[in-house]
Specification:
Elements lengths: L4 H21 L10 E4 L10 E3 L4 E9 L6 E9 L4 E10 L1 E9 L5 E10 L8 E7 L9 E9 L9 E3 L4 E3 L1 H6 L6 E6 L5 E5 L25 E5 L4 H6 L4 H6 L18 E6 L4 E10 L5 E8 L1
Parallel strand pairs: 2-8
Antiparallel strand pairs: 1-3, 3-6, 4-5, 4-7, 7-8, 9-17, 10-11, 10-12, 12-13, 14-15, 15-16, 16-17
């Protein structure tokens, strides 16, 4: 095909003209005030540097407000310790928000919490901060040890599959339905999503068809959520764990965990945190079968 320079120039000119038109139509954003952010001074909430023992729960409350026509898009909590830094972002589309945050003091000598709000244009507020130091009087505490719990998957007729960390008991789906507020773990086998042998909780995104009928989890009024992280601690360290030092050293901010412990394998060790304040470790002791199979775990928790 013969190259036509005149046609090529016309096409190039047309493309440039369209781009220039689109650019000219883009709304210019003028100067405006960034969002405001402040601690709420209220009894029971900290708003300045503090100290705490391992395992203490501290609460903070913040007020973020847009001072312009642009709504808030993100509230970020950044935790810095001597060994790591994590970010917890909460998405929204609101002119203002009051948010509570609970902090469980871990084993770090200190931790700094930085909080920042961003609006739709990513304009940031001032950053507010506080530091929490570890009290020298901190000592290791006792733990709850459950040597063996066997969960049956959804087609298992021998073992039940709904567990209460507070009651330390396992239930079938009908019993669990009647005490929804106390159910924190459940088991199922999911070959469709290739998650296979799975432990999760009522608040997880459970595939359709796993729990059906009058007591199906999707119809529960209370769906507690537990989150998980696969740990790299050794089986020996888990077996030797006799106080809460290892649990506090490995626990995580709830928002950063996964909603499922999936594709379980024998000797896997998971850290878990529930939205009801339960947290700890579990080790997979054995697995059998598929949707009619079961998984046995050992739990150590606070």
């Amino acid at each position: 095909m013969k190259f036509n320079p005149s046609k090529a120039y016309r096409i190039a000119f047309l493309c440039i003209s369209i781009l220039a038109f689109l650019y000219s139509c883009k709304k210019e954003i003028g100067a405006y005030s960034p969002p405001s952010l402040e601690f709420i001074l209220e009894q029971g909430y900290i708003h300045h540097d503090s100290s705490a023992k391992v395992g203490d729960t501290l609460s903070i409350k913040v007020l973020a407000k847009s001072l312009s026509e642009y709504p808030l898009l993100t509230l970020r909590f950044e935790r810095i310790t001597p060994i790591d830094t994590i970010h917890i972002d909460t998405g929204m589309y609101l002119p203002s928000i009051i948010m509570d945050k609970k902090i469980i003091k871990n084993v770090a000598a200190w931790e700094i919490w930085n909080i920042t709000a961003r609006d739709r244009n990513r304009k940031e507020s001032n950053t507010i901060s506080l530091k929490i130091c570890l009290e020298e009087s901190s000592s290791h505490g006792d733990i709850t040890h459950i040597p063996s719990v066997t969960f049956g998957f959804q087609e298992n007729n021998e073992f039940d599959g709904f567990y209460s960390l507070s009651h330390q008991a396992i239930y079938d789906i009908e019993e669990a339905f009647s005490i929804q507020e106390n159910i924190h773990l459940l088991s199922f086998y999911d070959n469709t999503s290739e998650d296979e042998h799975t432990l999760s909780s009522p608040g997880a995104n459970i595939p359709d068809g796993i729990f059906e009928g009058a007591h199906g989890v999707e119809d529960w009024g209370i769906r507690n959520t537990t989150r998980f992280i696969l740990s790299d601690i050794s089986e020996e360290d888990f077996d030797l764990c006799a106080n809460d030092s290892l649990i506090y050293a490995t626990t995580f901010a709830f928002e950063t965990g996964k909603r499922k412990a999936k594709n379980l394998k024998a000797k896997d060790i998971y850290v878990f945190v529930s939205d009801q304040g339960n947290f700890g470790l579990f080790k997979v002791k054995s697995l059998t079968g598929n949707d009619a199979g079961s998984v046995e775990i050992e739990i150590k928790m606070k």
